[in-house]
């Protein structure tokens, strides 16, 4: 394991219940990253999506992939939120969700840099469970400087 959840929190501003990355297991700076989200029955979103048949919302799968991509962006640039930088999710293209993600699944999150121009990153991203493809997409994130409180 390269980064545990406490180390991930140094590179992502999200916190519970919106931090959707539990660990990073592979990283090639400036190129690619692999992380995991363990899906448990007590995730807050399962209370309403859907009672009696819990399914992780697709938009949260997209968010989890964007968060993994954000870790790669921060680590590659040697920047952190505490230094006044954020990566904003600005878009997703060609989104395809292929199977539901349910409690007990371990969601594998992969992102690969396609381009990085003037702080705008484009990533090829995919999520899988047990080597079965859950979803694929192209994600765009923008690096921005912000005031640190």
What does this molecule look like?
InterPro entries: FabA_FabZ, FabZ, HotDog_dom_sf. This is 3-hydroxyacyl-[acyl-carrier-protein] dehydratase FabZ. Its EC number is 4.2.1.59. The protein is of the alpha+beta class and 149 residues long. The chain has one domain: Hotdog Thioesterase (Thiol Ester Dehydrase, Chain A, Roll). 16% of the residues lie in helices and 42% in strands. It is built from 2 helices and 6 strands; from the N terminus they run H-E-E-H-E-E-E-E. It has helices at residues 5-8, 58-77, and strands spanning 23-28, 32-38, 85-97, 106-117, 120-129, 132-145. The protein has a 6-stranded antiparallel beta sheet with strand order 1-2-4-5-6-3, covered by helices on one side. A hairpin with a 2-residue loop joins strand 5 and strand 6 (132-145). The N and C termini lie far apart (31 Å). The model has no long low-confidence stretch (mean pLDDT 96).
